[in-house]
């Protein structure tokens, strides 16, 4: 891949922290289930829900590089993008790539579905989600089954994402590095970034509201 131009800041601190917390929260959700810590599992799930809500809002009102309208292109553009990548002619952008942009949407959708179904899930014995009483017994079973099986889908998507990140790195685009320090080398104009602390303050506020409601 071609790496031209100067280093410009493409990711604000909220987006970078979002990715880090996502890894921690998913690991925590897995660990709490494996060890029967379901109350802690619920608390982590609520924190993840707050983070996802703000990330979606950030995709509308936040930094230019994080906005959905900036990186979402037609599905047909994915094939053209991948062809460019395989030919080694891809130049890193100041936002997600065409394929990466749709991967973001898929992951956000899966994670949002996961935490929402968790609110309605129950094992029928030791733990019930805070909204499980809203459903009938059959509804609870269906949602709980969906919640459990969907996590396997999330793990598969994560595996594909990791492989894609390594593939891009082999082709000359260090995606992990730019998500850590926020900078990327390219010839495009630097995007307009919002202060990341605003996103984190908003996340904490949403989390507190959810903890009170749930």
Fold and architecture overview:
By secondary structure, this protein is mostly helical. It has a single domain, classed as Fumarate Reductase Cytochrome B subunit, CATH 1.20.950.20. 67% of the residues lie in helices and 4% in strands. It has helices spanning 13-34, 38-61, 68-71, 76-86, 98-120, 137-170, 175-181, 196-213; strands at residues 6-9, 183-186. A two-stranded antiparallel ribbon has the order 1-2. The N and C termini lie far apart (48 Å).
Strand content is under 5%
Question: How many structural domains can be distinguished in the coordinates?
Answer: 1
Cα shape: globular
Per CATH, the architecture is Up-down Bundle
CATH superfamily: Transmembrane di-heme cytochromes, Chain C
- Contiguous helical run count: 8
Multimerization status: single chain
**Mean pLDDT value:** 91
Report the sheet with the most strands, covering strand number, pairing sense and barrel closure. 2 strands, antiparallel
- Give the class from helix and strand content and strand pairing: mainly alpha
Number of DSSP strand runs: 2
- CATH fold topology: Fumarate Reductase Cytochrome B subunit
What is the gyration radius calculated from CA atoms?
Answer: 19 Å
Task: Tell me the name of the CATH class.
Answer: Mainly Alpha
Instruction: Give the low-confidence spans.
Output: none
First-residue to last-residue Cα separation: 48 Å
Reading the helices and strands in chain order gives: EHHHHHHHEH
Strand adjacency order, main sheet: 1-2
């Amino acid at each position: 891949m071609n790496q031209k131009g100067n280093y410009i800041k493409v990711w604000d601190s909220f987006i970078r922290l979002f990715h880090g917390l996502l890894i921690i929260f998913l690991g925590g959700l897995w660990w709490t289930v494996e060890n029967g810590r379901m109350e802690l599992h619920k608390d982590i799930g609520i924190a993840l829900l707050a983070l996802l809500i703000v990330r979606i809002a950030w995709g509308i009102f936040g930094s230019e590089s994080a906005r959905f309208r900036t990186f979402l292109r037609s599905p047909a553009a994915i094939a053209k993008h991948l062809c460019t990548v395989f030919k080694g002619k891809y130049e890193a952008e100041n936002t997600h790539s065409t394929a990466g942009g749709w991967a973001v949407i898929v992951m956000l959708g899966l994670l949002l579905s996961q935490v929402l179904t968790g609110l309605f899930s129950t094992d029928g014995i030791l733990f019930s989600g805070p909204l499980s009483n809203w459903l009938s017994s059959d509804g609870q079973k269906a949602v709980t089954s969906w919640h459990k099986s969907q996590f396997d889908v999330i793990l598969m998507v994560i595996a594909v994402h990791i492989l894609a990140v390594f593939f891009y790195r082999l082709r000359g685009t260090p995606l992990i590095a730019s998500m850590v320090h926020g900078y990327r080398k390219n010839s495009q104009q630097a995007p307009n970034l919002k202060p990341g602390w605003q996103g984190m303050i908003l996340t904490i506020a949403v989390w507190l509201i959810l903890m009170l409601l749930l």
